[in-house]
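Table 4 source record.
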Amino acid sequence: MDGWIYGSEDDDASREGLEIGQYVKYVPDTYVNPEDGSSNYSLPSNVSGYDTNQEIAQAQDLTWRIMSINTDGTVDLISNTTEDKGVDIFFKGATGYNNGVYILNDIAAKQYSNLSLGVTARSVNIEDIENNMNDAGKSAKNTWIAENGPEGGKQKYTGDCSYYPNLYAEENGSGINTTETKTNGIEVSESGNSNFTMPSTETPAYKQATNGLTVTQTYYTIYDGIANYFDSNFYKLIFPERYEAYYWIASRYALCSQEYAEFGLFFIESEYISGEDLFDSNEENTYYEDYYGLRAVVSLGSNVKFVNGDGSKEKPYELEI
């Protein structure tokens, strides 16, 4: 796991004493929507898959805390969930699956960046969490098997229930009309190939494999959390103790059963990793939906100094260049 290494003349003394979980006074720029001049992010229904257009408010006065202290001198901050400020984002169906990662990162970039500090925000993703898992956590992740999973614990679905979101054909582990799976595709936290760098409005948002579908499972869930992470402060930061603290993770997943495959987006539910099923391979009309908040992440460059304050909630560090 990354951590700040001291010992050279170039070390920034302002990073001495920094710890994961400490509070930082980070203030995003005010977003200006070019369409109406508001600070809302306009999310059309044909991009989210949801039944109506959404206006996503820029959450004010979010709390920012240190998520990681890296060997290259950068420090990553994470906000509390926008759900705490009454701001949620709806996704639905194959369209929500295709565009969800892009949308979460785009909302974060537009509403929670700070140009004067030289940082562009993004959504938290599954790699942020997995990079902080210890051996026990990685083992729990890699050995998780769905209750109704394929026989013999195989983490794969191969069968005739062959509907899939359009983007899935570009992902590693997918097999369209074949039992061989893609190895040169995109990962679960990438927005997509050149056809998906902008939100897709392709209709329909799904296709059907004509000669069978192969799906590699990427979903897992871990319940007994704190022992699976290097740093207990990181665990407490990512998994809020209060009940019903839900937020999206900008990462897709596939879940395999013996009968069909599910496609969805990861989210955090209080004290464990979970996922929201948005589309199934068994029928073309499976359009599931749900809504959660967003947690933004910013990476502060090594030129950004931590001044004043002590990292407590009452006296957060201030930032300057």
